[in-house]
């Protein structure tokens, strides 16, 4: 017996409507569940970082603000759309900071959170667009037309039964629809169950690429996303010695400390009175001047390790009973620069240094003398001798300096150093001015 037509159509419509309703709920439920409780706060922090810092070229402050927004979101505090936007904005800032590798990683993360995320057209630069494309970002997809709904098979009014082929086709479509709804529900559930990545841990990045700097004047090398690894320097240094007060300087056999020369450059052998004159007052005396070339390698974010080779001028004449002046300078040097990523920032920064190596330091002072007590008492005019103090051969020199950049990879270096010299022991200091170029 055939079922009444009206009941059959009504039952079929009810089943399809229920399936459609359940599918819609399963599709929209993840979006509702994905809304995060901290979205509003994170978005406010992001807008402040972009509008107040990024647009005013304060890129470091913008980077810090966006990282704080990500920390505010935590692991599950913000929706996927907001996490995608925060990572996208941070990537744009990192492009401006000259960190293309980190920027592409952040863009990849943004696309993991929100595969449909796009760049803000008002903030796009060619470098940002290139990094976004390298990370897998694409223009908005072209909308595809929705399939037209299929009409239900009409029953054969004359025979009062459904056409067998039409009924089979309709059943297959219903099964496919049901399977699609179940699949979408499983995908949405698995996305919610998956643990969110830590916003401070970047995913692996496989592919590197490069793009032109602003103006297209220089092409960055593959993987060149940070400060230079080596620095070349040219330095001029003025030495000084601490001179103790001493008597009878030219009477003593001090071939390795003090030597006295007359105005002709010959070592003075006497006569000389050992009372008035013939003495050195205590104080600081200017000494040798040296020019040095340096090469330093970067160890981590803050440390430089390198060497300096140079040549010293204004050394003492060679005495009869002593060795000659050694002008060569050779030094192993370690320096610590203060600040976060100091070599990537074009700002003034202090540094500490420690050097050790080979150097001779000679100082020169003028000294009055009398040939005898009789000449002194007769009021004779005193003579003058050049007194040289020759010290060192080896040294240790701690220092404090200031780097004044002219760009992110070069600038002037001012430094004040203390010096302890041994072999022929003495204390001194030096001041230097140099120019540093990143390689």
Topology:
Blueprint: H1 5-34, H2 39-53, H3 59-73, H4 80-96, H5 100-113, H6 126-134, H7 164-193, E1 230-243, E2 246-247, E3 258-261, E4 279-280, E5 283-299, E6 303-313, E7 328-337, E8 349-369, H8 373-377, E9 383-407, E10 410-422, E11 426-438
Antiparallel strand pairs: 1-5, 1-11, 2-4, 3-9, 5-6, 6-7, 7-8, 8-9, 9-10, 10-11
What keywords describe this structure?
Serine Threonine Protein Phosphatase 5, Tetratricopeptide repeat, alpha+beta, eight-stranded antiparallel barrel, two-stranded antiparallel sheet, Porin, single chain, 439 residues, 2 domains, rod-shaped
Structure description:
The N terminus is likely disordered. This protein has 439 residues and is α+β, with helices and mostly antiparallel strands. It has an 8-stranded antiparallel barrel with strand order 1-5-6-7-8-9-10-11. A two-stranded antiparallel ribbon has the order 2-4. A hairpin with a 3-residue loop joins strand 10 and strand 11. Helices cover 31% and strands 30% of the residues. It folds into 2 domains: 138 residues, Serine Threonine Protein Phosphatase 5, Tetratricopeptide repeat (Alpha Horseshoe), CATH 1.25.40; 209 residues, Beta Barrel (Porin), CATH 2.40.160.20. It is built from 8 helices and 11 strands.
Summarize the structure.
The protein is 31% helix and 30% strand. With 439 residues, the protein is of the alpha+beta class.
């Amino acid at each position: 017996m055939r079922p009444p037509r009206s009941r059959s159509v009504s039952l079929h419509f009810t089943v399809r409507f229920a399936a459609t309703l359940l599918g819609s709920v399963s599709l929209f439920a993840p979006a509702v569940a994905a809304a995060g409780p901290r979205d509003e706060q994170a978005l406010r922090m992001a807008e402040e970082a972009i509008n107040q810092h990024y647009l005013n070229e304060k890129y470091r402050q913008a980077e810090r603000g966006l990282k704080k927004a990500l920390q505010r979101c935590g692991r599950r505090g913000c929706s996927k759309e907001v996490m995608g936007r925060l990572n996208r904005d941070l990537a744009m800032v990192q492009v401006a900071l000259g960190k293309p590798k980190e920027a592409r990683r952040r863009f990849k993360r943004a696309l993991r959170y929100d595969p449909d995320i796009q760049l803000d057209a008002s903030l796009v630069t060619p470098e940002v667009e290139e990094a976004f494309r390298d990370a897998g970002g694409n223009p908005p997809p072209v909308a595809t037309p929705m399939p037209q709904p299929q009409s239900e098979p009409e029953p054969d009014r004359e025979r009062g039964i459904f056409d067998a082929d039409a009924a089979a086709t309709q059943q297959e479509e219903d099964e496919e629809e049901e399977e699609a709804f179940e699949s979408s529900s499983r995908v949405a559930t698995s996305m919610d169950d998956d643990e969110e990545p830590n916003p401070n841990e970047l995913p692996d990045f496989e592919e590197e690429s490069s793009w032109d700097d602003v103006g297209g004047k220089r092409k960055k090398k593959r993987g060149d996303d940070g400060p230079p690894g080596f620095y070349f320097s040219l330095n001029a240094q003025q030495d000084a010695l601490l001179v103790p007060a001493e008597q009878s300087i030219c009477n003593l056999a001090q071939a390795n400390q003090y030597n006295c020369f007359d105005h002709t450059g010959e070592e003075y052998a006497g006569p000389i009175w050992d009372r008035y004159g013939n003495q050195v007052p205590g104080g600081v005396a200017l000494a040798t001047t040296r020019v040095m070339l340096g090469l330093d390698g970067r160890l981590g974010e803050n440390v430089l390790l390198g060497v300096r080779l140079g040549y010293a001028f204004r050394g003492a004449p060679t005495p009869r009973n002593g060795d000659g002046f050694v002008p060569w300078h050779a030094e192993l040097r370690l320096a610590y620069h203060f600040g976060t990523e100091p070599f990537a920032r074009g700002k003034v920064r202090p540094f500490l240094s420690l050097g050790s190596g080979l150097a001779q330091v000679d100082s020169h002072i003028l000294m009055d003398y009398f040939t005898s007590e009789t000449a002194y008492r007769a009021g004779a005019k005193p003579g003058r001798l050049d007194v040289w103090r020759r010290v060192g051969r080896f040294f240790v020199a701690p220092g404090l300096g200031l780097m004044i950049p002219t760009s992110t990879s070069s600038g002037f270096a001012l430094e004040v150093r203390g010096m302890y010299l041994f072999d022929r022991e003495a204390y001194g200091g030096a001041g230097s001015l140099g120019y540093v170029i990143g390689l």
